[in-house]
Amino acid sequence: MGPVQVLVVGFEQPAFSGEILAELTRLGRAGVVRLVDLLLVARAGDGTVATLDVPAGSDWEPRGLVAALLHQPEGEDETGVDAAGASTWSLADAVPPGSTAAVALIEHLWAGPLTAAIRTAGGTPLEETWLAPDDLAALEALVRRRIEDEPVTTPGA
Predict the structure, then answer these.
(1) What is the DSSP string of 47-70?
(2) Residue 135, pLDDT above cutoff 90
(3) pTM (2 d.p.)
(4) CA 41 to CA 50: how far, in whole Å?
(5) What is the edge-to-edge ordering of all strands in the sheet holding 33-43?
(6) pLDDT 10s digits, 87-132
């Protein structure tokens, strides 16, 4: 199995139309990603997390892998502390109280060969993260500025 991402997407007022699953299916057919599993959860104001049913009309069948992997007991608040008292990643920390979230395990098929090449070269990924929307906007502004500042060259000049 290639690199697998845990993607948690929050919804204040979910409107599950099937559009997200359709896009994941399209990306799967293109060999880019594979949806390993998907879980819908709601976090109440008191911190409890409950599993939600898949919306009517969806052809997705949850496999129970997200809940098993994240050890997220239904209806219980995840404290983010393991038995030894060490801090762990917590689904409850990722989902704000009073909101709903889709938790997807997505295998990045495109990254399999890259990961193998990194291992072959003796490398180990040390950190992985996605840029937050504000950071992404800042990066886009930097790229635009660099493009505008680059001198235009003509072939053969």
Answers:
(1) S-EEEEPPPTT------SHHHHHH
(2) yes
(3) 0.73
(4) 5
(5) 4-11, 99-108, 33-43, 49-52
(6) 456 777 888 898 999 999 999 999 999 999 999 999 998 888 888 8
